[in-house]
Amino acid sequence: MSPGGGKTIVTTYRIAIVGSGPAGLSAAAHAAKLGLSHILLEKTDHLSDTIYKYQKGKHVMATPSQLVLRSPLDFEAGKREVILGTWNEQTAAAGVNVKHGAEVKSIVGTGAPIPGSVMPIVSRNRDGTTSTTELQRNAPPYRLTLVNGEEIMAETVIMALGTQGNPNLMGCPGGNLPHVQYQLDDPTEYTDEHIFVIGGGDAGIENALGLCADPAQNNTVTLINRTADFPTAKDANVKALMAARDSGRISIMAEANTTAVEHGFITVETRDGEVRARCDRIIARIGSAPPRSFVEGCGIEFASADRLAFPKLSATFESTAPGIYVTGALAGYPLIKHCMNQGHDVVEFINGNLDLKPADEPILEAKFAGLPGKRSVAEWLEYLRTSVSILNGMSSLQIREFMLDSSVKRYAQGEVIFERNAPGSSLFGIADGEVAVEVNPNDPSITVQIGAGQIFGEVGLISGRRRGATIRAARDTIVVEISRNAALKLMSQVPSASREITRINTERTLLQIFKSGLAPADLVDVIANAKVETIRSGQAIIKEGETGDDIFIIRSGSMVVEKSIGGKPVFLSYVPAGSYVGEMSVIDGSARSATVRAAVKSDVIRLAGEPFRALLAAKPQLLDKLRGEMASRTQLNNFVESKKDSFSGVVDMYTGVANFLVEQGLGEATDVLLIDEKLCVGCDNCEKACADTHDGLSRLDREAGRTYAHLHVPTSCRHCEHPHCMADCPPNAIHRGPTGEVYIDETCIGCGNCQRNCPYGVIRLDKTPPKKPWLLSWFLFGSGPGPGEASHKWAKKHDPAYAEKAKKAIKCDMCSGQEGGPACVRSCPTGAAIRVSPEQFLGVALMNREDR
Amino acid sequence: MASKTQASRAMTGKAVTRAPRDTAHEGFLNHKRGRWAKVAITLSVVALGAYLLTDPVPRHNGGTWLGYLLGSIGAGMIVWLSLLGVRKRVIGSKPFSLKGWTSAHVYLGLSLIVVGTLHTGFQLGWNVHTLAWALMMIVILSGLWGISLYATLPERLSANRGEVTQLQMLEAIRTLDRQLDIAAQPLDADDAALVRMSLEECRIAGSLGQRLSGNYANDGNARALATIIEKVMTGRRTGRVDDRLAQIEFLLERKEAALAQARRHIRMKTQLELWLYVHVPVTIALLAALLAHIISVFLYW
Ligand SMILES: Cc1cc2nc3c(=O)[nH]c(=O)nc-3n(C[C@H](O)[C@H](O)[C@H](O)COP(=O)(O)OP(=O)(O)OC[C@H]3O[C@@H](n4cnc5c(N)ncnc54)[C@H](O)[C@@H]3O)c2cc1C
Ligand code: HEM
Ligand code: SF4
Ligand code: SF4
Question: Which of A187, A188, B40, B62 keeps 20 to 30 A from B125, CA to CA?
């Protein structure tokens, strides 16, 4: 055994592992097993802090099930306590050299400067500007400096920090006093204290509410918020906070800033001057800084400036700093099993076993089975990487991970790849062959060909809307289907792919919208001047009365058009993604006749008026088409305007309702449940029907939610075009189904990320209750809980395993697969419940409703 | 099973059409532009026409061919109308529209006034046959009562609750109770007893009588508030207002307002269901009487 254990003062370890999550722990245990000298550095006083911080008793899942575990530590699905217990035992038994309370703050090479290895680090300043510094990398061995000043030397370093990062610290004097804390594990721990919670985000609000929930604890709780309202927090949290304030359980100091902390006191700057108040404890929840800047400081380059980007890694997980390896969540592997396997693999690589095949090899083998060409997995990966142009910029590690989320398929000549109006947000790349796009729905014989190396399907990916055309294989063709998640990752990891997709999307969107016999060659000038811009929700891209002749194409999101009539803004229409606005001024040179603003955060393509006018001059058909569209828009304007004269109340109401619905997320919805409270008798049959058709759990809360003019938007999924809930799902369990529904499959691990990410609060975590007895026996003998969701009490009594069951995320699936369509609508006795799409509802139909 | 749903759900690239659904924004009374109203009126007019145009000997009653016909139609309709209770609760995955069912239920149910009454040939007396007719009329009248509530109450229910749910209303009252409890600590025994009256002798919904009349003057909170107001007024007149009492008065007033909202809510919800407590049991009695009527007709005729 080589010298370990840190007995001598200056030991150079073979491997230093930073972070003891599943990745770091597994690596350390494997190193111990191989007898390599190592040290495991962990910031906290326990192992695996991320899992340690899960809710007590959480059921931890071991997905993906097809992946074999290759780690010296055991891991199978079970309770958090059991898993941590097993790991503690096994780490001790394996003789892992752990150092607790060891937060690493810097890692620098102590060898000679590596020629040419200079890394630019871009940092963003508070005022939005950026500054760049340069870092000269030095050769190993590395010196790791801990926060307490200790130093450790190692030949190689495994970074396994996870993605939690560090909480932002309080900057004011006294911010480092011991009664300032950045986490609240158990709110019931504190009694009779004056507690200040700092930060008006969800974390701060939830902590504050937890501290004052039980009056018996007798805490005096104050929440300090920098701004006047709580824009980043969820509606439900803000409401609960206001209720707590109104009932005197909590005080809120808004537009306030902490200026000093002393023992027993806090000083806060408010609009009315400075306040010094008694304070026994401060809980600061002012966000956390991702570990990126620390990691970059070690010489590890990221794939791009994108927030979602991960470090650039070789096939052996080595970063751009030679000898520093990155694994686990920080490397982009979201699940515990992945992390553990990687910890094992990376130690094997460091130990010289470069032929090791990754654990996911069989999964990839299965993906390529049945395809022609008899290639090995590595050959397939290389073949796809080189043949599809947007994949060229990927590393071999990236393409491997990428393929786990994607699939390859061979289509015979004439076979349909997707149909017009099919929902779908995946992107396709042609590895070999050619496809034909049926651009004219009325005449399938008119096609445009797309050849090998190119992509298609990007419009669905970017706009979140249904496919615009049917695409068939023009001859035998091999295509890679890139899932939405993989495509988004690709765009953030490989900047060149992102640029290419944007360019193609712009061109194709234009062709699709304007049709009229245009060819890519006609658009060269227009596209050369096109800009993609991101528009904040509520921001106007066109203002009524202003001059300007740019045309905007809505790439994702949606817009509302308003006109000021009699001094008041009147809602004219709703413009979904895939449409354009602003053509009137180009055609007739007039000032803007209405205001167009974003209903939700949107991306638009801005086309300069000048080249567009040239295009119109060259293509009279296009001009005619635009004229036609313009006429129908003018007609709508006139219709609303004429109503305004005669029925001003009706139009005001229409505007009010439309704005309300847009605020409630209709602008990004594809399908939403509305309840007409003039008809709803409150029987809750909709909720009961939902529960009875969905494992006994209702996915809607009829009574909760906002109401305007008797139109109620209950708490129920809107099936967003770009679902927020999908953003951060470790097992990637949220998908869009074939009828456009957003659903969660059974691989859900119950982590609650989707619940936190959904801005409309429609996801809940719950366990499936046992099956109810037959309805007839309830009718006749009153057995069972009857229609609707059974109580937890009943479930517990009738299912011995209920208490131990795992909670999973559940939400509306639009009753997909049910012949009768949405059960809530079917089962409403009065017709109060309707499900609509925004285009259907935010139009003249709505006006007519008000007209009744 | 899970894997099966998985497979059927995987994206196929096919433009799968959604299950057809009713997106028309019209209430059950206007369902399909009053289709069932038209059917019911036609049925009634035809029945009445047949009744007036035929002149059976000795007179119209259940025993003529028209009587048998109307009787069979009527009995069939009653059974079908009763099945609404089942339809409402057995959801399944197949298409149906409860709104359509309710619409048909209401209008066909009303046409029973004509069909059922003509079936009797106005031969009413004190027997099981007339009992069946009477029960039918009670069910129908209670149905009309229900309709009038369904037409008027939802809008008021919605206006009263704003965006607050029933749970939140009750939670708000509980919170005020907690605050009252705290505010009562420094009071002397008499005043504290008043607060206790509000805490312990206040029933949110109260008895069915209170619920329907809306009169809660005897409730603990109302009585406590009345006494406290008097005390505070007396204090004002003599220029010695007890701040602690004023605080109690304020809290009791807020509680009274919160109670009033919750009570209005509960009252309307009760009303929306109450009529069904006539409609449904009498329906069951009607079905029994109908059976007795049919059996006796075939046994004794
Ligand atoms: C609520 C929740 C539920 C989840 N449920 C599941 C589940 O059921 N199944 C599943 O497979 N996955 C689940 N996940 C995901 C899983 O927890 C992570 O993917 C996994 O923990 C990542 O492991 P890691 O080793 O990369 O990093 P982490 O587990 O995050 O560990 C990083 C460690 O590094 C330490 N550290 C950080 N910085 C430093 C430093 N500078 N110096 C020293 N030490 C440092 C930290 O204290 C920590 O102990 C869940 C995630 C969450 C948030
Ligand atoms: C003989 C005739 C009738 C019979 C046997 C009958 C029977 C029933 C039954 C069994 C229910 C189900 C109640 C429940 O389970 O909740 C019901 C509901 C109802 N009935 Fe009738 N009914 C009759 C006539 C009418 C008439 C004439 C009207 C209206 C004018 C009417 C209006 C209603 C309404 C509105 C409902 C409630 C629907 C709902 O909320 O789900 N009924 N009836
Ligand atoms: S559509 Fe189906 S799943 Fe969605 S809320 Fe209605 S009943 Fe529930
Ligand atoms: S769960 Fe929330 S974020 Fe996801 S689609 Fe539904 S409404 Fe949108």
Answer: B40
